[in-house]
Amino acid sequence: MSEFTAKYLADYLPSDFTIDTVNLTVELDDHHTRVTNTLAVKKENLEQSQLILDGEHLKLVSAKLNGEQLTSDAFEQTEHQLTIFNVPDEFTLELVTEIDPANNTALEGLYKSGGAFCTQCEAEGFRRITYYLDRPDVMAIFTTKVIADKATYPYLLANGNPVERGELANGKHFVTWHDPFRKPCYLFALVAGDFDLLKDEFVTQSGRSVALEIFVDRGNKHKAVHAMDSLKRSMAWDEQVFGLEYDLDIYMIVAVDFFNMGAMENKGLNVFNSKYVLADKDSATDTDFFNIEAVIAHEYFHNWTGNRVTCRDWFQLSLKEGLTVFRDQQFSADMHSSAVTRIQNVKLLRAQQFAEDAGPMSHPIRPEKVMEMNNFYTLTVYEKGSEVIRMLHTLLGQQGFRQGMDLYFKRFDGMAVTCDDFVDAMADANGKDLSLFKRWYSQSGTPELTVTQQFDAELNKFKLTIVQHTPPSEAQPEKRHLHIPINIELIDPVTQQVTNQLLELTDVQQTWQFDASNQPIVALLGDFSAPVKTHFEQSVEELLSIIELGDNSFCIWDAGQKIMAQEVTFLLANQNAKPSESITRMMAAVMKADYDDEFKALMLTLPSFEELVSGLNKVNPQQLLDAVEQLKLFIAQQFEENLIGLYQTSEQLLQKTDGNTGDHTNDSAEGKQVAARSLANTCLSYLSMLPKYHHIIEQQFTQAKEMTSKLGALQSAVRHAPLEVGDKILSQFEQTWLEDTLVMDKWFSLQANMQVDTIFERLEQLMARDDFALTNPNRARSLIGAFAMQNARYFHDAQGKGYQFLAEQIIAMDKINPQVASRLITPLIQFKAFDEHHSELMVKALELIAAQPELSRDITEKLNAALLQH
Ligand code: B3K
Ligand code: ZN
To answer: Which cofactor does it need (predicted)?
Structure first.
């Protein structure tokens, strides 16, 4: 497993050559697409005599330098490169290559999704289209001529503005596009197909009109309306908050069914997984609506943070991703409940990023060693990367942060830069020393804060001491201290006064002293001001006081989560015990509190399996699930009256008001409905623990007029109801939605979540269906991914059947689509979190994969890291 080599950040060198212009002519054909690529090349390092271009899976047809055909001794071709010897200082290179898009199942480069041609070039897919200097710091002006059969492919799209179109012989036509902005080739895009087109317009703050176009499969136009509204909201928000305006005359989005990730920010021509574009109320949940808006915003925001200012090299990925995730999170928080949005961000981070950072693939947000770049589009680079930007925002304040952004664009517009460049702009614009802060970019692992307190009643002084420690990792055995912003609230339990303060921890240990006439209660990490774990002994009394008296919604929620997690830990350690008083007191406080419905739903929800695992050590997954179920059942029994009351009130609200599909923002009627549905589904999930309420599952399913309630009923059914109930409504659901791909993905996921001992036979049967195919990433993830990442009970089967099932699917998938295979392996490599019995079975499954011949670079990198830890 050592045939692949890694690249190191420390080895970065600027390119010996630059490319001024690229002229592409792409003659589309299923198996023989011909690409003519004319490059204007300039030598920057005059010592260098040979030009080495990247290229993979390409058939070279011809090569000309300054119009002269190159003879075979003038160049050399290998599996990954084309080297041209003795090149002059400036020259034109014309390369003709042929590719086979219809057999491209890796979905990188040019491929076919359904009937359409589309591209995915980030990170290193452009080299599968033509030979090029495929690195983000080579920025050129692109002109692209697309040629295809007119009847089959009426729309021919590429980056920039259309400059010419016309008819050709044999029923073909062409369109030429010119992108006036210099860009790296990873932002190149091309699409050809037959679509329905939703058109709109946005007038920018300076008065320019921008055409907005969303291309979707025929028949789906009405499902693009929410995406279009989201796009217009994003454009307005970026002008208001960051003063950033769109720069081309046209902005296009194409939705495709076959896509490895969520979406791609190609300049002027985003390509999206249809899952993040298409929605209407019948077929999409409130979460789908939310996610579509967030992803549309994310890709739009990349136009400045990613495209106008891009990354020097791929180690700097968080420069654009961390920053753009932060921007989309702020946008979502402004459009919806900021408290709920923030808590959802934190839940994702704690459940998944903390696990990644504790596992074998742990890496800093700016990795230093990469074998396969696609393996580094991670929760660490994205979500922790966003937390690092958020900490800067917290340290500098909204206005200081904006000044830093302004300076960043002033200095670097049109350039390919580094994370250091970004932090320097923030530091310089604010006169703030951020040198210690930069360690967040180079150090991996989740820091842990140990907090102790001391109150002197005589002197009326309160002392808070915080010690930081980051556990060592394989790659970084010695961790250093970081600059950590810590928002705290001090609650005076007598006067009930709340004061808040931002502490800056800049040493291993620091103590702060406050004047206080009564011993205050500390609410730590307001708004989750740093991506850390905390060890802070607080009594149930104190935690309840935070819930009842605190100001910060995150701290209120977190205090509740802490009580719940402590309860689970207690039940885990005392197998025959009953849940304690504290959970009853906490739940009673939550039930009577005057929260909005969505926040209440979050307060009632137990920490997820993954969130709990990240706070435990070498856990037995089956026992953990038992403890959680025991607690859930206890709450359902103790609070049956409250839960049914809340359920009925929410249902009544939902019957009374009829929402619209348009405005989903916080204060709208629709926003209130979203909240009510979230609360109703949370209550239903508890109530379905009690057999006497199983009938309301079916009732909700039958009566619901939209997808969120239908899916809520189905989820409760597959998790808690007897098999007959689940199977009955699942089959009704299937009959209704058989023709809708995205809804059927949900159906497959529900099946993968079933709590039945026959789950493995079911999975096999589902995979044998005609509408299941490993070549479609969404479908594969909806079954295999959902099973491995959501059905903890059976994934962690005590005999290892779940692990083996996943290993077999990964082996099959790796031959088809290495990127998707590599993402599916995540739950298996995190074996260190579990007890010996389970972790050994997980390692066995990994060894089964490792024994296969010809594994991809993607899977190899992860297996190497994981098995090294064993
Ligand atoms: N920049 C793309 C990710 C492309 C990943 C390629 N493996 C999506 C995004 O973050 O906006
Ligand atoms: Zn992004």
So the answer is: Zn(2+)
Residue from 264, 277, 307, 375 to probe ligand 1 pocket by mutation (most atoms less than 8 Å from CB): 264
Model pLDDT for residues 278-312, shown as the tens digit of each residue: 999 999 999 999 999 999 999 999 999 999 999 99
306 Cα–ligand 2 center, Å = 8
Residue range 719-726: mean pLDDT, rounded: 94
Specify burial of residue 200 (Cβ count, 10 A radius: 0-12, 13-18, 19+).
middle
Q: Is the backbone of residue 565 left (phi > 0), alpha (psi -120 to 50) or beta?
A: alpha
Tell me, what amino acid is at 252? M
Q: What is residue 109's predicted lDDT score, i.e. its pLDDT?
A: 98
Report which residue type is found at 652: Q
CB 701 within 8 A of CB 734: no
- Ligand 1 lined by 264 (C-beta under 6 Å): yes
Residue 380 identity:
T
- Asked whether 377 lines ligand 1 (CB < 6 A), one says yes
Between CA 56 and CA 127 the distance in angstroms is 6
Place of tokens 């180079």: 442
Side-chain-side CA neighbours of residue 500 (13 Å): 16
- The token pair at 852 is 């296969």
Chain length of the chain: 870
Calculate the CA 768 to chain-centre distance.
30
Instruction: Measure the N-to-C terminal CA separation of the chain; round to a whole number of Å.
Output: 16
Whole-number Cα distances in Å, 310 to 142, 321, 386: 16, 10, 17
CA-closest residue to ligand 1 atom 10: 321
Q: DSSP states of 237-291 as a string?
A: HHHHHH-----SSEEEEEEES--SSSEE--TTEEEEEGGGT---TTT--HHHHHH
299 as an active site residue: the answer is yes
Q: What is the DSSP string of 660-699?
A: -SS--STTSHHHHHHHHHHHHHHHHHHHTTSGGGHHHHHH
> For residue 1, what pLDDT is reported?
45
Residue pair 846/866 in contact by the 8 Å Cβ criterion: yes
Residue 263 CA, closest ligand 1 atom number: 8
Could you tell me if the CB of 265 is within 6 A of ligand 1? Answer: yes
Residue identified by tokens 């098995």 is: 867
**Rounded to whole angstroms, how far apart are CA atoms 291 and 275?**
9
Give DSSP secondary structure letters for 133-193: --STT--EEEEEEEEEETTT--EEEESSEEEEEEE-GGGEEEEEEEEEEEE-GGG--EEEE
Which letter does DSSP use for residue 607 in this model?
Answer: P
> 28-60 pLDDT, tens per residue?
999 999 999 999 999 999 999 999 999 999 999
Task: Give the separation between CA 547 and CA 553, rounded to whole angstroms.
Answer: 9
Our mutation pick for probing the ligand 1 site, out of 260, 331, 377, counting the most ligand atoms within 8 A of Cβ, is: 377
Left, alpha or beta for 819 (phi > 0: left; psi -120 to 50: alpha)? alpha
Burial of 265 (0-12, 13-18, 19+ CB in 10 A): buried
The predicted-structure confidence for 568-581, as pLDDT tens digits, reads as follows 999 999 989 999 99
CATH numbers and ranges of domains, the chain? 18-193 (2.60.40.1730), 310-442 (1.10.390.10), 448-539 (2.60.40.1840)
- Token pair of 591 as six digits: 């039930």
Which atom of ligand 1 sits closest to the CA of residue 260? Answer: 7
Map residue 68 onto helix, strand or coil: strand
pLDDT per residue as tens digits for the range 315-339: 999 999 999 999 999 999 999 999 9
